Each structure stands twice: as structure tokens, then as C-alpha cells.
Amino acid sequence: MELVKLLGVLVVVVGFALKLDSILIVVAAAIVSAAVGGLGVEGLLETLGTSFVNNRSMAIFILIMLVTGTLERNGLKEAAANLIRKVKRASAGAVIGAYGIMRGIFAAFNVSFGGVAGFVRPIIMPMAVGAIEASGNEPHEDHVETVKGMASGMENIAWFFCQVLFVGGGGALLVQSTLKDLGYEVDLIDLAVVEIPIAIFAVLVGITYYFLKDKRMVRKYYGNKVAKED
Amino acid sequence: MLFKVNSIFTLAFFTDPDVTLGAKLLEVILIVMGLITIYNGIKNLLDKSNPARIGTAVFWCALGIVLALGRWLPPIASGILVIIMTIPAIFKQVKMGKSNAPTPEEEKANFDKIGMKIFIPALTIGVSAILFALLTKLGALVGIGFGIILSIVLLMIYSRDNKPKVFLDDSARLLSVVGPLSMLPMLLASLGAVFTKSGVGEVIAELVGKVVPEGNVNVGIIVFAIGMALFTMIMGNAFAAITVMTVGIGHPFVLAHGADPVVIGMVALTAGYCGTLCTPMAANFNIVPVAMLDMKDRFGVIKNQYIPAIILLIFQIIYMIILK
Fold first, then answer.
1. What's the pTM value of the predicted model, to 2 decimals?
2. Annotated domain spans of chain A
């Protein structure tokens, strides 16, 4: 067995571990791999060129950006904030859950509202902390820290697993081209459909886990008070 | 000279009756994408506030040329252009000039004017992609292109301020924010192709074959899914892992035994996402938020994600085994 052929993979692993520039790592790995695999300069350039060109449709996000920026300019984030603020009288865990549902649905249409910087920090966190205060408690530092982590987690989980429902998304395009090289033809719409149960399950897991975790923290940090109000 | 030859080839492709309408329209979309990218390059070249005008322009123009003309360029020329665009990227010479980002006040004022119906043009693109995939032979990507046109028209009806230049400059701004990483998806896919050509898949398959009995598809699925998650944790990116893992494990141990490529190929990617949730290598998702939310614990986001990630990985393995 020719373990030396894995040198390119090793370059990637070591490169990422050393936090080098991603593009530098990929180019270096390609060169090393081509060298040990005996592709030669010409073979490397041809493989790079052919594959890059075959995967051009992964850059469809460039076309989508034609409206993304202008949507934002025209108040998309404001509208989303308006929508989520309709959630009233909820616990911090419920605010995060509601955001998970909203983010999941919009992710399926490839619509995002600015991520942690643009949405979680200015809109979700004040709502969640406000929810703790509304229950008559002084927000505990450790509880708020966990709420921050849970809000980011919900943001990530809903986005990762629901964005694959967007037909023509980058992930499915990459899978399609990988399978094509191996001789399997698959349709983008089928790749999206197969993910529907997983997307729904993922959002449900996120919502349930964060709701229960928040409930446990409320009991831990403000236990007596909540018991009294019940 | 090169361009003259290309323009002839371009016409021949677009008038060829053997090429489907969907393929022709997709090529038009790619050309538009390339032109937007080149526009960004030239805009930055002329922008005196950009600290690295030449490098920025080289990157975007080279990328734009490959996007727009890739079909007609010889593969080796595309390969050289890919290497050329990585040079300013590696030397941090792809930068942003002055930003035309909307102020919160402008967004608020526009929202007061347009209101909740701003969601309609936002959702148009995804709906159009689905409808085109289901009802036409043109394909989802052409649907995305059509949805974008519709979305632009709606936005122009909503507000007279939305002139063509606003769309162009807003997209150029977003493109500049993403910067050189916008070539990364294609570059990672190409790295996968280089790995495949160099025989990496076979070596991994041989290694895994020593542990996993070939022929047992269920064991193959488990190894494939967990392998995807672990390899993604190391790389920080499921896109970087999927090609090598599919070639090295998914194909020989699962697909070659007749499992459904739609289920196995796609769900392996989202199994990889479980790894993304657990690794500090995926800094954008797991570390940057820590800073943005002023959290105390550097692993504060990951600590809230690993349990859902494990549950989801198990669920997806069972899902693959049942549906294979």
C-alpha cells in the first residue's frame, strides 16, 4: 500500500491545525498530492481547471447576492425582527425555539438575516434576556452565558440542516458532482427531498434540547421564585 | 485573438440544437455571474480607497473569466487562471475599498415604507427554484436565475430608489465582504478531484478495508457517516471532507453494493455537519460568535451543540440504513 499518497490529506490536516490560510492549504495540498500521485504539472493544472469549471454552478451565490444586499437595504432584517417580536410572554428557551423555527423555514429558501452579528446579538439576545427579566428575576450571569451559546447553537443547527432544502444549494451541487465522477446521476430536487425528515428532526432536537436546558437553568438559578409563581 | 475564437465558440454553443435549453440558460447564468465578478474587479481597480487595487482586481477578474468563459477555455488555461487567482488571495492582497453598506436608519426608513411584503422578493428565489425543478426540464439553477429577475422587478416596483446600479453595487459589496473565500467551494471540489486522480481514495479504501468487512453495507454506512463527522471536525468544513470520503469509503463500501446514491451521498454531507457543530476549526460558526456575544468560554457555543450533534448523527445513520 502506498501510504505516501495520503501526503496531500496530511497537508490539509496539518495546515488547518496550524491555522494557515485556507486557500494556501488547499493549493499546497493539491500540489503535494499531484506530486506524489504522479500527475505532473500539466496533469495538476488540467485537473484543477476541469474540476473548477465543472463546479462553477457552486458560485450561484454570487448571482443570489444581486438581491441579498438590496433586500437588506430595503428592510429585510427589520421585517424579520418585527416577525420574531410577535413572540410574547415566553421563556428564554422558548424565544430561542421560536427563532429556530423561523430561521429553519427561511434557511430552506436560502434567506438569512445577518447571522450572529446581525440578528442574534441585536435582536434575539435582548428578547431572551428580556424574557428572564419579565419573569421577575435578575438574569444570572451563567444563565445568560448559556443562553448566548444556545442562541448561537440554534442559529447553526437550523441553518445547516434546513439550508440543504434549498434546491440548488452549494452542498447538493458538490454531492451531485462528486457522485457524477463516480458514475451516479442524481437530481438536485431528489437530494433536497431526502433531507426533509432530517431537517425537521434537527430543528425539533434543537428546540427541545434548548427548551429543557433553559428550564433546568431557571430552576437552578431562580428556583424558589419560579416555584412561588407557579 | 483568444476572445475572438471564444466568441465564435459561444455562438456555436448557443445555436446548437443538440444542447438543451436548460444547459444554454445555465451557461447564460454563469456568464452573468462572471460579469458581476469582473465588474467587482474593475470597480476595485478604480477605487482609490482600496489598499490593494491590483491584487483585488487580478483575483476578481481571473475568477470572473473562469466563471463566464470556463466552457470555452482549454482546461489547462482554466487551471492556470485558478492558480493566478490564488496568488493575491494567499498574499492577502484581496481587499475592500469604501463600503456602501446601508445604515440602520436607511433600513428602518425603507422598512417603514415597504413593510412586511419585503418577504415576498426574499422567498421568490427559493420558490422559483422548486417550481422549475418540479415543473420544467430547465433545472433548479435556471429557476434561481428566474427567481432573481422576479425578485429584482418586485424590489424596483416597491421603491424607485432601487435602480440597477444599487443592485450591482450591493452585490459587489457582499462579494467583497466574502472576499477570496468565495472561490473556496470550487477550490475544495477541485482538491477532491486532484485527490481522486492521485489515488487517495484507493489508499483510504484499502486502509478502511483492513478494519471493515467489505460487503456489509450497514457497517459501511456507520463507518462512512462517523468518518464524515470526524474528518469534518479535523478540516472544519464538510465540503472539504465529502469528496475524499465518498470516493474512499462511500463508494467502495456502500454505493458499490447497490445502496441508493441519493440517500447515501446526500445524508453523508449532513452527517458531516454534525462534525461542524463540534469543532473549533469551524471558526465562523463556533468561535466568531463567542467573540461577537462577549462570551467568557471560548468553547461556549460548542458545549451547547455537541449533544444535539450526537443525537442527529445517530438519527442520520439509522435513516441511511433504513432508506438505503
1. 0.84
2. 3-54, 59-229
